[in-house]
C-alpha cells in the first residue's frame, strides 16, 4: 500500500568538508531511481542560529515522498548507506542523525520545530518523542543530528518560505575561493527582482559564494523557483560544477524570533526579541564593536553590534538613554571577560526620547550669535557690544536620525540565513494566497536540471 513518508537528516558535515544539503542531493538522486514519488522540493530548514553545536548555518533537511511499504527497506537502507558513506564522522563535532517518519506529520514534530528555531533542545527529549511515533532512526555517536532531523520534518512551511538553488562543485575540491565573475552576479541580480541577497552593494561583496572547504559552489536565494534558476543562468563562472539541487526553505523569513521576552526570561544561546529602554549610551570597544545597555524587566543587559555588522553600528550609535527599543538577537552567555550580551541582528525603535538643545539667540543689530555675558548678567554680542538683559535661552528639540516604526537590520554581508532582509519587507501575496503545487514545480525543476547541466558544460568551455 502507498504511504506518505518523511526523511529528516542533519549533522553530517564538519569544518573540514561536506554539507548536509549535498548529502540530501545524493540521497534524492538515489531516490529518483526508485519507484516512489517526491511530494515537494526537499526542505532546507535552518534552526536556532545561536546554538553552540552548529558547524555553519545550523541547517537540516527534510524530504517528503509517497512510496509503497514494500519499498521501505530499499529507501531506508539506501539513506543509511549514504549517511555512513558521506558523513564526516572523523570530526569529533559531527553527530549524524537520520529519521524516517511514516504518515502525516504529528503536531509534536511541528511544535519541536517551532521551539528548535529559538531554544536549545535536549537530545533526550527528542529521542523520547520519537519513540511515541511511527519512526525509524539511525545515528552515529551521540546522534545529536536527530534534533535537527526531527525538527526539519516538523517544518511544514505553510506560510512564509523562500527558495535556494544550490550549485555544487566536486566534493574533493577544498579551496576557499570560488571562481565567479562578480559583474555577472550584479547584472543577474539587477535583472532578477525576485531573487535577493546576491550582492551586498554597501560593502561590495558577492554573497552567493561561501568560502569554506565544503562542496557548495554557490547558493542563489529567491522568492520563486523560476527566479533562482533565471538568476543562475545569467552568472558567469570559471570552474567546473558537479550538480545542483533546488530547496524550499525557511531562510530569510525571521521565524527564529517568534515572541518578545523581558530580560528576566532569556537563556543562553536563545534567539530573542528583547524589549527595553536604553540605560547606558552606546560606546566603542577596541576592534570596532559598539555596546549599549538596556533595562528589560528587572535586569540590565548589554547589547552588541560587532565589527562585522559594518554600517549598522552607525544606527546603534544614534541611540540615547531613555529610548525604548526592541532588540532582535542571540543571547551570548557571560564569560570571564564579558557579561551576558545580546548579539544584535535587528533593532526597532518603539519611542525616542526628545533631546532639547539651546537655540543660540542672534544679535538684533548685527546678526552675530549672542553669548552669555557672565553669571546672571544676560547676553552680549562680541561683535558689536550689544547687551541684552534676557537671561533665558530658548530650546528646540533635536531631530534624530533614527525613526520609530523602521526595521534596522544588519547589512547583507553580516546576515544569518534566517534574517529577513529589508528587501523582503513587503509581504508577497503569492506566498500567502495561491495554492502552489510544489510537487509539480519540483518535477519541473528536475526536467530543467538537465538544461542547467548543459549550462554548466558551456561555462566550462568558456573557462578553458
Ligand atoms: P550546515 O549548515 O553546514 O549543514 P550546521 O551548521 O547545520 O552545518 P550541524 O553540523 O548540523 O551544523 O550541527 C548542528 C547540530 O545542532 C545538529 O546536531 C542539530 O541536530 C543540533 N541542533 C539544531 N538545532 C538545535 C536546537 N535548537 N537545540 C539543540 N540542538 C540543535
How many domains? The number is 4
Measure the end-to-end span: 52 Å
Count up the helices. Answer: 10
The CATH topology annotation of the largest domain reads as: Alpha-Beta Plaits
Work out the radius of gyration: 27 Å
Note the main sheet. Answer: 10 strands, mixed
Strand content: 25-35%
Keywords:
alpha+beta; Alpha-Beta Plaits; Glycinamide Ribonucleotide Synthetase, Chain A, domain 4; OB fold (Dihydrolipoamide Acetyltransferase, E2P); 4 domains; 10 helices; 29% strand; binds adenosine-5'-triphosphate
The gist of it:
This protein has 464 residues and is α+β, with helices and mostly antiparallel strands. It has helices spanning 20-32, 72-86, 107-116, 123-131, 145-153, 182-190, 225-233, 312-317, 429-433, 438-463; strands at residues 2-10, 37-38, 43-46, 59-68, 97-102, 135-139, 162-168, 195-196, 199-200, 205-206, 216-222, 243-249, 260-261, 271-285, 289-296, 299-305, 324-332, 341-351, 356-359, 370-372, 379-381, 387-388, 394-397, 407-409.
Kindly describe this structure.
The protein is of the alpha+beta class and 464 residues long. It has helices at residues 20-32, 72-86, 107-116, 123-131, 145-153, 182-190, 225-233, 312-317, 429-433, 438-463, and strands at residues 2-10, 37-38, 43-46, 59-68, 97-102, 135-139, 162-168, 195-196, 199-200, 205-206, 216-222, 243-249, 260-261, 271-285, 289-296, 299-305, 324-332, 341-351, 356-359, 370-372, 379-381, 387-388, 394-397, 407-409. The longest helix has 26 residues, at 438-463. It is elongated. The two termini are 52 Å apart. The model has no long low-confidence stretch (mean pLDDT 92). Adenosine-5'-triphosphate is lined by residues 10-11, 13, 19-20, 47-48, 51, 53-59, 95, 116, 119-121, 144-145, 147-148.
